[in-house]
């Protein structure tokens, strides 16, 4: 008996697999090196491949369980391979060849040719072309101009509407009707588009109606109110009825009857006083209401409450815009909001000469719409969709756009 067989190590049965799907069993002693095992595997799956000395070095054995690459110089025992373990024979990936310098230069040249021209190149190439479309930046600037000018237009149109309605023999009755219409608008009327937006978010209809009435039909403020009062036990309690609002109307009617009794001069004075009071009442109902959350957030930055309210009023309750206004040059100022447009300007004259606008200015509802949009610009959509006030706003917008292009 040969000595090496007497002192031979333990024989292990190993399961070997290749990437092509071949499988077989190899019996090896514990002291067999990984390199020898690899040669036996290559003889089995690639006969004749060992003629090339690089074949062994171009392959490697991997322990399937630990995913460890076995070292050629170590033995099976040193690599802690156990009986019935699975080994994977794979060919090493060829190293990636570095690109030639000529190929790199060609690729960079191709990229430069496909690169889009910059702004200067576009302007140079189109310098002699006639202008056929409006620049987007100019369009955006014009939109901002319209929002700024619209407020001035509304201020001046309110003065005209008040004068026209005051000249009407039935002025007091008209403004009583307007005041009652305002009460009805606040208590009964709901913007259907705003209501649908809230109900589609999952809020109950009755609760959404209440939130819209409390927040001047503003969807954003109504949604915040609904979220804040979601756990409030009185959130579904109905708003106070319209009964108290009827009493002043009756009182106003009796005062109108009493005013009709005296002589014409005294009656005119009392009528003017009554009109003044009704104007004040309408304006009080349409007072600007700052967003409480925005007020708190901006005051926490260190701004004074009055400054914050002014900023929100100037920027239509938009918190980010109000913050920029506070940190910037603060233009326009709150005082500028009460300034009207130049009554001798072509724009204002064109608006006043429009038949639709002229007819609308004799309607008390138009005056209410102007007052509301002046103090609460977020409600402009509601008035644009109204069959009585919408055509007037559409004509104002068209006239502005037409004159702004010329």
TrEMBL record:
SUPFAM superfamilies: UBA-like, Ubiquitin-like
Location, primary (coarse class): cytoplasm
Encoding gene, per UniProt annotation: Ubac1
Cross-referenced Pfam families: UBA_7, UBL_UBAC1
Lineage, opening ranks: Eukaryota, Metazoa, Chordata, Craniata, Vertebrata
Keyword line: Cytoplasm, Repeat, Ubl conjugation pathway
Pathway: Protein modification; protein ubiquitination
Bias (Low complexity) ranges: 240-264
Alphabetized InterPro entries for the sequence: STI1_HS-bd, UBA, UBA-like_sf, UBA1_UBAC1, UBA2_UBAC1, UBAC1, Ubiquitin-like_domsf, UBL_UBAC1
Gene3D superfamilies: 1.10.260.100, DNA helicase RuvA subunit, C-terminal domain, Phosphatidylinositol 3-kinase Catalytic Subunit, Chain A, domain 1
Any one Gene Ontology BP term: protein ubiquitination
This protein's name: Ubiquitin-associated domain-containing protein 1
């Amino acid at each position: 008996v040969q000595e090496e067989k007497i002192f031979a190590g333990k024989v292990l049965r190993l399961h070997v697999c290749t990437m092509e799907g071949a499988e077989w069993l190899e019996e090896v002693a514990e002291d067999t090196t990984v390199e020898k095992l690899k040669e036996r595997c290559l003889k089995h799956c690639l006969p004749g491949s060992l003629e090339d000395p690089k074949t062994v070095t171009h392959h490697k054995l991997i322990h399937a369980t630990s995913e460890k690459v076995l070292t050629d110089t170590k033995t099976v025992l040193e690599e802690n391979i156990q009986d019935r373990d699975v080994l994977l024979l794979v060919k090493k990936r060829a190293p990636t060849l570095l690109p030639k310098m000529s190929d790199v230069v060609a690729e960079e040249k191709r990229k430069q040719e496909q690169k889009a021209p910059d702004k200067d190149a576009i302007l140079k190439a189109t310098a002699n072309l006639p202008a056929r479309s409006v620049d987007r930046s100019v369009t955006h600037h014009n939109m901002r101009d319209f929002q700024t000018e619209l407020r001035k237009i509304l201020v001046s149109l309110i003065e005209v509407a008040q004068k026209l309605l005051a000249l009407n023999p039935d002025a007091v009755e008209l403004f009583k009707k307007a005041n009652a219409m305002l009460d009805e608008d606040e208590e009964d009327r709901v913007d259907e588009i705003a209501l649908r937006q809230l109900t589609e978010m999952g809020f109950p209809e009755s609760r959404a109606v209440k939130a819209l009435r409390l927040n001047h039909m503003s969807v954003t403020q109504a949604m915040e109110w609904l979220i804040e009062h979601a756990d409030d036990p009185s959130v579904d309690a109905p708003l106070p009825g319209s009964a108290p609002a009827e009493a002043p109307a009756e009182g106003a009617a009796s005062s109108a009857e009493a005013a009709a009794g005296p002589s014409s001069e005294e009656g005119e004075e009392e009528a003017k006083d009554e009109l003044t009071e009704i104007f004040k009442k309408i304006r009080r109902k349409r007072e600007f209401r700052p967003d409480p959350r925005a007020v708190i957030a901006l005051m926490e930055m260190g701004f004074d409450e009055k400054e914050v309210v002014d900023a929100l009023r100037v920027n239509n309750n938009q918190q980010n815009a109000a913050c920029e206004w506070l940190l910037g040059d603060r233009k326009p100022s709150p005082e500028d909001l009460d300034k009207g447009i130049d009554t001798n300007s072509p724009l204002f004259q064109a608006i006043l000469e429009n038949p639709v606008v002229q007819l609308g200015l004799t309607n008390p509802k138009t005056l209410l719409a102007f007052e509301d949009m002046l103090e609460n610009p977020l409600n402009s959509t509601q008035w644009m969709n109204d069959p009585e006030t919408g055509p007037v706003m559409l004509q104002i917008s068209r006239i502005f756009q037409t004159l702004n292009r010329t």
